[in-house]
Write a structure and sequence with these properties.
Elements lengths: L1 H20 L31 E5 H5 L6 H5 L5 E3 L9 E3 L7 E5 L2 E2 L21 E6 L3 H4 L6 E6 L10 E11 L4 E12 L2 E12 L3 E2 L6 H7 L9 E2 L5 E14 L2 E15 L6 E20 L2 E19 L2 E18 L6 E18 L7 E15 L3 E16 L3 E15 L5 E12 L3 H5 L1 E4 L4 E4 L7 E14 L2 E24 L6 E26 L2 E16 L11 E10 L2 E10 L15 E10 L7 E8 L23 E9 L1
Parallel strand pairs: 4-7, 24-27
Antiparallel strand pairs: 1-6, 2-3, 4-5, 6-7, 8-9, 8-33, 9-10, 10-13, 11-12, 13-14, 14-15, 15-16, 16-17, 17-18, 18-19, 19-20, 20-21, 21-22, 22-25, 23-24, 25-26, 26-27, 27-28, 28-29, 29-30, 30-31, 31-32, 32-33
Length: 662
């Protein structure tokens, strides 16, 4: 019955696209600047998005610290990290994390267990990527309700989409002082006629990392009646990481489009800093298919498809013994029919399907075996008439979660509408509103048991309903002369916000306080800003000042939500000298005193960073770089982290490396 409803909705959307297409005359496509791949199947440039987007390119990833996904992205406006030590980190976007932030690989879900717990690492590494796109705010129309808070799309190039001439590649290696770490990665492509082959690999190792203070925070020591912690250098025990990642792919690129397959293997072992004898071993094998077909099918000119299958195992060891093992396997697929650009009008109709099984076995098996199915259909449409435009979309999806506790079905309807103006050269003003529906996750519905990583006894509620948000985003882009600015303000109202709240009960066996998933109403609002001003330029040489800031506030009927990040502001001076680039950065993060029950406040901190990269030899394909982080050796604690009072962020450290492209 549900599949019939989805099919009927798909037919309706296709008919709507056919009817609208007939109303517009054909025209040549517009030229755009940097294109955003995530969010819409058609072309939208960075300076024309009505929501907040950041793109991290391969050049930036070459000099990014070898770390988990959340830690690499932390510092972007509106983005923080769950930081569970160097081995595990997921992004926190506008104060939201876990099942509300969707992490994708090439537009397809991860099919792992990383959203279940902050000590679960994402089954990919940022160094695999050619680019990473971060979308803040509701982006659920193309990707489902799990994107209610934002999307992080890791885009690799294992399935090439264009012809390559000969043999090309990149290699990168670096070493760091604060954790005795080293990393090496490489990626290669070989073009043979219309066929393109790819191969890549990554190896990363690090030991326990150094911090400038004793691990326990001053506030926690005071609460526990412990002696005040000393400011003396120490190491965070059990924070070492070993990661191996390798994969390859093949694609055929012809006049009608391209198509290909890839396979990847991830194997990582890392310590859990909160538990001295606990380590985690993560393994995943993943197969992906991807392609695009140029066609003439009524109102559509292209058919895009992407799909992935994965087999994932996450084993928690207590010393040498296996404690709990998490299993996740399944597949996800997407199909998109893209309309041509006709007099500024673009659009697409898409279909998505997901089947996934997740299970936990052992002493800390919080959730029963759960089978998850989701089927969705959506359309996105945009009219851009140069000086003004409108956009909108609609999505219907059906999600089923089936466990021994209960079987729940959720029908979610989401929609959005937006408008924008270009009142003068270089200016873009946009506003968008959305209504987004999210089904509860398996953890929120079915969990029950102790969770040592968070020191909580968690109890789900199989009767939870849908979480619905109503959001409003305002955007200002400006680029002209020496100035470039990007400003965003947002407000979100939640009906049935799913929150994990402390009770007065304590579990007798584990000794952990009991936390229950409940529903309440909530409001989130805030802003993000980025600006750049070029003070001087002479040919390839230039000097500019950059700044960024963010703020988010969350309120619920039960009080402040837990782990809401405080405000932050970053100032940066950048000198580009043709063959070398130098950056000096000062980052200030505020304290957080608005906390949930049993959550300790966090002090503010200031951090000084510096980096230099250069191509000093005749061969400009060889780059060397040096980086110093936290030069002032500040005690820095990430409020969004469960470990903030046990494991501060790394202290002063230095890294040196080199990369080569050919």
């Amino acid at each position: 019955m549900y599949r019939f409803r989805l099919l009927a909705a798909a037919s309706t959307l296709c008919l709507a696209a056919l009817a609208t297409e007939a109303a517009w005359a054909a025209d040549a496509p517009k030229e755009v600047s940097e294109v955003v791949v995530t969010g819409a199947p058609y072309v939208v440039s960075m300076d024309s998005t009505t929501t907040s987007v950041d793109v991290i390119k391969r050049d930036d990833l070459d000099t990014a610290p070898p770390a988990g996904l959340g830690d690499v992205l932390s510092g972007l406006p509106g983005v923080r990290s769950t930081f569970f030590g160097p081995g595990a980190s997921r992004p926190v976007i506008r104060g939201l994390a876990g099942p509300r932030v969707l992490v994708l690989t090439n537009g397809v879900g991860m099919i792992d267990a990383s959203a279940l717990s902050p000590d679960h690492q994402v089954a990919t590494d940022p160094q695999e990527a050619e680019r990473i796109e971060v979308l803040r705010g509701p982006s659920a129309l193309a990707y489902g309700g799990s994107a209610i808070g934002g999307i992080v799309n890791i885009i690799d190039d294992r399935i090439p989409n264009k012809v390559e001439d000969g043999f090309h590649g990149r290699m990168l290696a670096s070493g760091s002082s604060g954790d005795r770490g080293h990393m090496a990665s490489a990626a290669f492509k070989l073009g043979v006629g219309d066929w393109v082959f790819s191969l890549d690999g990554l190896r990363r190792e690090s030991g326990d990392y150094e911090v400038p203070v004793e691990q326990v925070s001053r506030r926690l020591a005071q609460e526990e009646g412990l002696p005040p912690p000393l400011r003396e250098a120490t190491k965070v025990a059990n924070s070492a990481v070993e990661l191996t990642n390798y994969g390859g792919g093949v694609s055929y690129v012809g006049s009608l489009g391209y198509g290909g397959v890839s396979i990847k293997k991830t194997d990582t072992t890392y310590g859990v800093a909160a538990e001295e004898d606990v380590t985690i071993g993560l393994e995943q094998t993943r197969v992906d298919a991807q392609g695009e077909l140029n066609l003439d099918l009524g109102p559509f000119e292209k058919l895009r498809f992407a799909g992935g299958w994965a087999d994932y195992t996450h084993t928690e060891y207590e010393g040498e013994e296996v404690g709990t093992t998490f299993y996740s396997d399944g597949w996800e697929a997407r199909l998109e029919l893209v309309q041509p650009d006709r007099n500024g009008w673009q659009g697409a109709v898409g279909f998505q399907a997901l089947q996934k099984s997740i299970d936990a076995v052992g002493e800390e098996a919080l959730i029963p075996k759960t089978d998850i199915e989701e089927y969705g259909v959506f359309t996105l449409q945009r009219l851009d008439k140069d000086t003004w435009g409108i956009e909108g979309g609609l999505r219907l999806d059906q999600r089923t979660l089936d466990s021994v506790i209960a079987k729940r079905d959720f029908t979610n309807v989401s929609g959005s509408v937006g408008a924008f103006l270009r009142p003068a050269e270089g200016w873009f003003l946009g506003i968008s509103g959305s209504r987004t529906s999210r089904a509860p996750s398996e953890e929120e519905l079915f969990s029950e048991g102790p969770h040592p990583a968070t020191q909580q006894f968690e109890v789900g509620d199989a009767g939870l309903g849908r979480e619905i948000s109503y959001s409003l985003d305002a955007t200002v882009h400006y680029s002209g002369g020496p100035w470039s600015t990007d400003l965003h303000a947002f407000a979100v109202k939640y009906d049935g916000f799913i929150d994990l709240r402390a009770s007065a009960d304590v579990d007798d066996e584990s000794g952990f306080r009991v936390y229950r998933f409940v529903q309440t109403d909530a409001k989130f609002y805030g802003a993000e800003a980025e600006a750049s001003y070029r003070l001087w330029q002479d040919g390839e040489r230039s000097f500019r000042l950059e700044g960024a800031a963010d703020y988010v506030r969350g309120e619920t009927d039960l009080g402040a939500p837990p782990r809401i990040p405080p405000w932050s502001a970053t100032g940066r001076a950048v000198f580009e000298g043709g063959w070398w680039t130098g950056k000096l950065e000062l980052r200030q993060v505020g304290g957080q005193k608005r906390t949930a029950q049993y959550e300790l406040p966090t002090d503010d901190y200031r951090m000084l960073n510096v980096s230099v990269s250069a191509t000093p030899f005749a061969d400009r394909n060889l780059k060397v770089f040096f980086e110093g982080r936290n030069l002032n050796d500040a005690e820095a604690r990430e409020h969004a982290s469960f470990l903030k009072d046990y494991a501060p962020l790394p202290g002063r450290s230095f890294r040196i490396g080199a990369g080569y492209r050919f």
